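Hello, quick one for you while I still have it in my head. I'm working through a protein record and want to make sense of it properly. Would you mind checking whether the tokens look sensible for this chain? I owe you a coffee for this, so here goes:
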Amino acid sequence: MNLQEISTYCADYIRGEDKDRYVLSLFAPPEHRGALWALFAFNAEIAKTREVVTETSLGLMRLLWWREGVQEIYEGTCRDHPVLLGVRDAIERYDLPLKLFEDMTYGREFDLEDVVPGNIDGLFNYCDFTHTPLLKLCDQIIGMEEESSLKNLAIRYSIAGNLRSLVAHAHQHRCYLPQDAMEEVGLSEAQIYELKNLMGLENIVQKIIEKLPDAPSFDTKFFKAYNGLALIYLKQIERLGYDLLDYRLTLPPMLKELRLWKAATF
């Protein structure tokens, strides 16, 4: 495959697997989009590991395959997979560090453990470990932002995504709500998985959102849009009374595209 075919593959893959990040990539300068599509495709591949395996050992093997695939790039070889070929080009063009790719794959091992975060801080740490390395790689491509701002954005964007995905996660027997907060309102993991008798869920969600770090500020349109999308989704949850079972959470927020453009532009 030539570079154009690789870039097209990654763009099409992201458009199907992670449409929001594909849209966000369009706020980056055109010359950087191919690298972002490769990073986002790599992230999508490792992020869906928990969904596509039936055993923890298989998930660890899958993550190891991707981790070793990136490690081999730094050793001078590359497996014949379009995502890894795209990652290789991004690494060579922007001198991306291996450690951030490794951190991304190690962070996703938590998904395979089926362990509920002990508290809100534990939940935020999970969001940091799984998302901040990706944002740091994007930052090295787009332009240097403050590391603390990237961490706060990673937490806010991940929380918005995880909360909006509660129903889908429940069907997969996955729960990212803090254990202590569930115990405080008398909820169990079993109730979450069954999506029944969820009295107190709104209180947990409100507490999580209220404890989020403040929205950071950015200079580049790409990160402004990223930040804006997290805020749009969080505001949607708030307007629906923190009810994660409300079917309207499956719909795009009102005037989403216009609000995203405004966030990126001003």
